[in-house]
Design brief:
globular, binds S-adenosyl-L-homocysteine, alpha/beta, 6 helices
Length: about 220
C-alpha cells in the first residue's frame, strides 16, 4: 500500500514535472523523460538522513565528495543528451546511480565510470536493487573513456571540466552527442555533436551550473 510519505513524494514529483514543462525545460509530449522521472525513485538513491528531501529541487550530499544532482539539472542534461532506445551510453561520474538508472530505462546500454571506490560500491548497491540488466559499472578514471566498449552514441559527464577530455570526444560515434558541464567556478552546459568526424559545440545555460570538479 502507498504510504503517506509515498503520496507526498508523488505529489512533489508531479509539481516538479509541471514546473519543468512550464519553464520549457522538458517538452509536455516528452513521454520518455516524463516516464523515467516518474518511475525511478530518487528516495532510493538519497542517503537516509536526506530521504525527506528527495524531491527538493537541490543537489543533496551523498557520500564523500559526491553529491546527488539536482533534479532540474539532470532533466536539462538528459533532454540535451537526446537519448533513443538504441543508444549506447557512456556516463562519467556514477555518483549515487540515480541518473544511471534513468538512462538505463531509455537506452540500450549504459556504461558508467566512477573514480571513487566507496562511491562506486554504494552505487553498485543502489543499482542492484534497481535490477536493470543493461548497466555496467566501472571503477576508474572516466577521462580515459572506456575503449573496450567504444564508440558511444551518447556521452554524459557529471562533473565540472575545464575542457572536455579529448579521449571522450574521440570515443563519440559519428552523429553522437556529448553533454558536459564546462567552466570554473560556474559551468555552462556544453552540448557537443559529431558530424562527419567534425565536432561542433553549443553552449546552454551559460554559467548557471555548479558541479563538483572532474578529478
Ligand atoms: N549524477 C550523479 C552525481 C554525480 S557527482 C547523481 O545524481 O548521483 C559526480 C561524481 O563524479 C562523483 O561521484 C565523483 O567521484 C565522480 N568523478 C569525479 N571525477 C571523476 C573521474 N575522472 N572519473 C570518474 N568519476 C569521476
Amino acid at each position: 500500500m502507498e504510504s503517506i510519505k509515498d503520496k507526498e513524494f508523488s505529489m512533489q514529483k508531479k509539481k516538479l514535472l509541471e514546473s519543468w514543462i512550464t519553464e520549457g525545460i522538458i517538452d509536455k509530449d516528452d513521454k520518455l523523460l516524463i516516464n523515467v522521472f516518474l518511475k525511478v525513485k530518487r528516495e532510493d538513491f538519497v542517503i537516509k538522513e536526506y530521504r525527506d528531501f528527495s524531491y527538493a529541487d537541490t543537489a543533496l550530499p551523498f557520500i564523500k565528495e559526491a553529491t546527488i544532482s539536482q533534479p532540474t539539472v539532470i532533466m536539462m542534461m538528459l533532454k540535451n543528451l537526446n537519448l533513443t532506445k538504441g543508444s549506447k551510453v557512456l556516463e562519467i561520474g556514477t555518483g549515487s546511480g540515480y541518473q544511471t538508472a534513468m538512462i538505463a530505462l531509455i537506452a540500450e546500454k549504459v556504461i558508467s565510470i566512477e573514480i571513487d571506490k566507496d562511491v562506486f560500491e554504494t552505487a553498485k548497491k543502489n543499482l542492484a536493487k534497481f535490477k536493470a540488466r543493461n548497466i555496467k559499472l566501472v571503477l576508474g578514471d572516466g577521462k580515459n573513456g572506456f575503449k573496450e566498449e567504444a564508440p558511444f552514441d551518447r556521452i554524459i559527464i557529471n562533473a565540472a571540466c575545464e575542457e572536455i577530455p579529448k579521449n571522450l570526444l574521440k570515443q563519440l560515434k559519428n552523429n553522437g552527442v556529448l553533454v558536459a558541464p564546462v567552466g570554473k567556478p560556474y559551468q555552462s552546459l556544453i552540448v557537443a555533436k559529431k558530424n562527419n568526424s567534425k565536432i561542433s559545440f553549443e553552449e546552454k545555460f551559460s554559467h548557471g551550473l555548479i558541479f563538483s570538479d572532474l578529478r
